[in-house]
């Protein structure tokens, strides 16, 4: 096993939950997508989110790093409100710069990878540490090389994304997020754009990460991964949390009709 | 398109198939092509003969090719082309970003600008700049500068503003198309990494937009080089003006026009070559393998490219 990258600081500083959602609502125009989400994610927890298409899983994930703005409720990461500062009982919107600063601590991995196509694998990973943290090129390259090694792609450093397979691209994307030393990682269906034989490599990297104590929220259809690695699991449908608990309980013995019918379709 | 196909399937070692005989067949004869070639060549010969027997003093062309006045005109043409394009590109980028702004005032000002400058002929715009002196007597930028309008608005400045501001409108549309062509996931990924709006634009979006922006911009440069001959309207001393002056003074009017055409051709050819390499640079990462440059292709062919398979799979 290579060196751990999850240090004690990256496991959260507030002492409270890493993510806390209280009655979170989100609409796009007149479409009410999130209808009161309540949940807590503890530090070092692997938190799985499942649910049918259109239930609002991606939307919720995007709210956590403020790619979407919530309309009502409270959402906080490591004790700090997302997108707002609270002062004397009043909320103040954060400036773009402050929002960006908060996002540094939250890594995100997308379904469609979203690697920067004009940069090589190693440059993709170096970009944010250099541009955002002001790290030196040499230091960034050293870390990037280590991370590539960690995700099993040491020999692909000079490849452009178009010269990598989907699974390799997704592992580079994970390494890119890890380069910012986040305390929380968000995964939005990281394997659902992959050919079946490539899924395993990506899941292995994620398992590794979980074993190192990274706090992770994973939207996934990989029930095997949820059962094996997940610490808790939430089933969402139509913008609400229908059922939650330990993955083995929810998957093995679902209580709600909606959960049962969903699981019967995907299992 | 030639495609490498020889890196594929090795035959299994236990059953080596016999090397197949190369196919010997009589190729299809394309008689139509021969007829067409003969007709075209005949027409060309007639054209050449017409010009050769015409009253053209061909010797004047090489003689005046490096004439100091002609070279001065050429220098001015290149200068005004480059500077107008600089104004065009910078203005275009600003306008494109303004168009995307959430502020309705900035976005509609940008829209109006493009509407006006694309909707009127550049020749008219040049005349307008030239004749603005009729409505403004002085230029007065309060604390900084005050002068007679005619001293301030030199032919050079008229030409520069006329061509540059007009170009900005076209470049704005090209830049806008380029920015829109970049996948939104790129911006999201950059934001998710904590990059600011400005950094995201500069480091992630613009370099990718360049792939869409560069080819039409190359065309714009070549167009600008030719359009710049319109600055005769503001009495700027460009290549065409120089050729006309020299032609009139030396009695070789048509010859000097041909000479100007030769110089324009040389310049546009050089620009086209530059554009090819620029496009190649910005295409990196977008396809699995960059196409070879003509130079590399020639080298590869010299280095015994005889193992190229004759058939191409698609
Ligand atoms: N920017 C947007 N504007 C309008 N509607 C949106 C927007 N983003 C998402 N939606 C809508 O919100 C709903 C939930 O979308 P979301 O992407 O969160 O679903 P999901 O649970 O992630 O589904 P999937 O499993 O298919 O990814 C969908 O009906 C979608 O059409
Ligand atoms: Mg989704």
UniProtKB/TrEMBL annotation, chain B:
Its main location: membrane. CDD domains: TM_PBP2 (cd06261). Pfam families: BPD_transp_1 (PF00528). Residues 1-21 are annotated as: Disordered. It is a multi-pass membrane protein. The keyword Cell membrane applies. InterPro entries: AA_ABC_Transporter_Permease, AA_ABC_transptr_permease_3TM, MetI-like, MetI-like_sf. One of its GO terms (biological process) is amino acid transport. Belongs to the binding-protein-dependent transport system permease family. The HisPMQJ complex is composed of two ATP-binding proteins (HisP), two transmembrane proteins (HisM and HisQ) and a solute-binding protein (HisJ). The HisPMQ-ArgT complex is composed of two ATP-binding proteins (HisP), two transmembrane proteins (HisM and HisQ) and a solute-binding protein (ArgT). This is Histidine/lysine/arginine/ornithine transport system permease protein HisM. It comes from Streptomyces piniterrae.
């Amino acid at each position: 096993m290579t060196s751990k990258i999850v240090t004690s600081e990256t496991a959260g500083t507030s002492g409270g939950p890493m993510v806390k959602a209280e009655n979170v609502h989100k609409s796009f125009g007149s479409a009410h997508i999130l209808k009161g989400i309540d949940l807590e994610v503890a530090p070092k927890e692997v938190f799985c989110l499942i649910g049918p298409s259109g239930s609002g899983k991606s939307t919720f994930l995007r709210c956590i790093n403020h790619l979407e703005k919530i309309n009502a409720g409270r959402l906080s990461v490591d004790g700090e409100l997302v997108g707002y500062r609270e002062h004397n009982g009043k909320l103040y919107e954060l400036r773009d710069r402050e929002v960006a600063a908060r996002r540094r601590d939250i890594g995100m991995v997308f379904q469609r990878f979203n690697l920067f196509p004009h940069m090589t694998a190693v440059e993709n990973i170096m970009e944010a540490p250099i541009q955002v943290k002001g790290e030196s090129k040499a230091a960034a390259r050293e870390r990037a090389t280590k991370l590539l090694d960690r995700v099993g792609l040491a020999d692909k450093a000079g490849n452009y994304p178009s010269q990598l397979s989907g699974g390799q691209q997704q592992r580079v994307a994970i390494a890119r997020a890890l380069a910012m030393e986040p305390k929380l990682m968000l995964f939005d269906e990281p394997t659902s754009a992959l050919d079946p034989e490539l899924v395993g490599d990506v899941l292995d990297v994620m398992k590794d990460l979980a074993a190192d104590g990274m706090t992770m929220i994973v939207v996934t259809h990989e029930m095997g991964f949820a059962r094996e690695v997940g610490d808790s699991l939430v089933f969402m449908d139509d913008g609400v949390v229908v059922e939650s608990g330990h993955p083995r309980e929810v998957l093995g013995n679902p209580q709600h009709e909606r959960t049962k019918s969903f699981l019967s379709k995907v299992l | 398109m030639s495609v490498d196909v020889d890196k594929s399937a090795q035959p299994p070692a236990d059953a080596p198939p016999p090397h197949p005989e190369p196919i010997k067949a009589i190729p299809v004869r394309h008689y139509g092509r021969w007829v067409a070639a003969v007709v075209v060549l005949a027409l060309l010969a007639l054209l050449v003969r017409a010009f050769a027997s015409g009253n053209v003093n061909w010797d004047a062309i090489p003689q005046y090719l490096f004439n100091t006045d002609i070279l001065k005109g050429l220098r001015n043409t290149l200068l005004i082309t480059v500077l107008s394009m600089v104004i065009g590109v910078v203005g275009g980028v600003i306008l494109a970003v303004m168009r995307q702004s959430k502020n309705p005032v900035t976005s509609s000002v940008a829209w109006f600008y493009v509407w006006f400058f694309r909707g009127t002929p550049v020749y008219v715009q040049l005349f307008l700049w030239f004749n603005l002196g009729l409505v403004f007597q002085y230029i007065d930028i309060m604390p900084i500068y005050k002068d007679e309008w005619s001293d301030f608005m030199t032919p050079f400045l008229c030409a520069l503003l006329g061509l540059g501001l007009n170009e900005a409108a076209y470049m704005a549309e090209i830049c806008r198309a380029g920015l829109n062509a970049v996948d939104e996931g790129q911006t999201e990924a950059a934001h998710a990494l904590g990059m600011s709006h400005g950094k995201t634009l500069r480091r992630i979006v613009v370099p990718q937009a360049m792939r869409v922006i560069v080819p039409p911009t190359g065309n714009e440069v070549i167009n600008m080089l030719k359009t710049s001959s319109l600055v005769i309207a503001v009495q700027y001393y460009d290549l065409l003006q120089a050729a006309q002056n020299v032609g009139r003074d030396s009695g070789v009017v048509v010859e000097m026009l041909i000479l100007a055409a030769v110089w324009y051709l040389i310049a546009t050819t050089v620009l086209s070559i530059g554009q090819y390499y620029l496009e190649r640079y910005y295409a990196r990462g977008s396809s699995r393998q960059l196409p070879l440059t003509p130079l590399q292709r020639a080298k590869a062919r010299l280095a015994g490219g005889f193992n190229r398979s004759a058939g191409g799979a698609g």
